[in-house]
Specification:
The chain has eleven helices and 14 strands. It has 327 residues and is α/β, with parallel strands linked by helices. The chain binds adenosine-5'-triphosphate.
Length: 327
């Protein structure tokens, strides 16, 4: 059985199609990432899978339960960590867990055992009797994840799990997510707009753009598909296509604000010819770098856009506020 099976799932808001007939499967125990720019349809997709939004058409099963015909079955099988900050600040971590366990009618003894085990898993045992209001952002997120696992879900949904956290805390959180997927054999489906997060954590990634899945594979295969090397050229003159770059050895070129990239098989062999061509076209070159394709290059290739982490970082607070208000 697949942990998640999605078939032509569609969500329209009025005339606007936010999710456009997407189909994909997720295997049991997999960490699957939905990667996409703002507004691509990531949150809408997982909201439908978590039965928080009903689809306009298409179907999906989560842990063998139909999201439209068996909402209860789905809800019992999933854990959800969305950006809604639903912890009670005036309670301790332990009390937050206990309260959640009661909602799911988990017997007292089992509740206590699992709370102990999960707080240990996310590294909060020592702080379990402190009020949540004294916790840092990363600790809160870890507690939310522990809480989402209390009723032993088969599938865990994480909506931008490290949004707004500093790099070190994000690294810690990745370790925890990795560990719980291995130790608890849980299927994780997460959304992110961080390339490094998707690359580091996910077994497979679906790149979603304008409501459609434009590529789906392992991070390694996605990168391999782009060819051997990528040359990135920074140029203040660059705008749009550059003529004269229609060479047989160039596999693909992409451009964005002041940069363009050239994907090719052997950068060493062709670099000087490329530079010469640009100089002949009187294009100013500020810097040149040669590297193996990154997920950033893959993303640019499929969406025509780039997400630089610093840009994303600057937008995080706005986006978090927006998301909190929405959910
Ligand atoms: N309730 C709603 N009513 C109308 N439009 C909506 C609603 N929810 C989402 N949308 C629109 O659907 C599109 C997809 O939104 P969604 O939140 O799924 O994107 P996302 O990929 O999660 O983006 P982000 O990373 O910015 O959260 C956006 O254009 C958004 O404005």
């Amino acid at each position: 059985m697949k942990a998640v099976a999605v078939e032509e799932l569609t969500k329209k808001f009025g005339d606007f199609t936010a999710v456009d007939s997407i189909s994909f499967d997720i295997n049991e125990g997999e960490i699957f990432g939905l990667l996409g720019p703002n507004g691509a349809g990531k949150t809408t997709t997982i909201s439908m899978l978590a039965t928080m939004l009903s689809p306009t058409s298409g179907k999906a099963e989560v842990a063998g339960h139909d999201i439209s015909a068996d909402e209860d079955g789905v809800r019992k099988s999933i854990g959800i960590v969305f950006q809604d900050q639903s912890l009670d600040e005036e309670l301790t971590a332990w009390e937050n867990m206990d309260f959640h366990g009661r909602l799911y009618r988990i017997p007292k003894q089992i509740r206590a055992e699992r709370t102990e085990e999960l707080l240990e898993l996310v590294g909060l045992t020592e702080r379990k009797d402190d009020f949540v209001k004294t916790y840092s952002g990363g600790m809160r997120r870890r507690l939310e994840i522990a809480r989402g696992l209390l009723h032993r879900p088969k599938v865990l949904f994480l909506d931008e799990p490290t949004l707004g956290l500093d790099p070190q805390t994000r690294n810690y959180l990745w370790d925890y997510i990795d560990k719980l997927s291995r130790e608890m054999k849980i299927t994780v489906i997460l959304t992110t707009h961080y390339m490094d997060e998707a690359d580091r954590l996910c077994g497979r990634i679906g790149i979603i753009d304008k409501g459609q899945i434009v590529a789906l594979d392992t991070p390694e295969n996605l990168k391999k598909r782009l060819g051997g090397d990528v040359i990135t050229i920074k140029s203040p003159d660059y705008s749009g296509k550059i003529s004269g770059l229609e060479k047989s050895w160039i596999e693909n070129t992409e451009g964005y604000n002041g940069f363009f990239t050239v994907a090719l098989h052997d950068a060493e062999e062709h670099l000087s010819e490329l530079i010469e061509t640009l100089i002949n076209r009187k294009i100013k070159i500020t810097s040149v770098s040669v590297h193996k394709p990154t997920l950033e290059d893959v993303f640019l290739h499929y969406t025509g856009r780039t997400i630089r982490d610093e840009e994303a970082g600057a937008k995080d607070h706005m986006r978090m506020d927006y998301k909190r208000r929405r959910h």
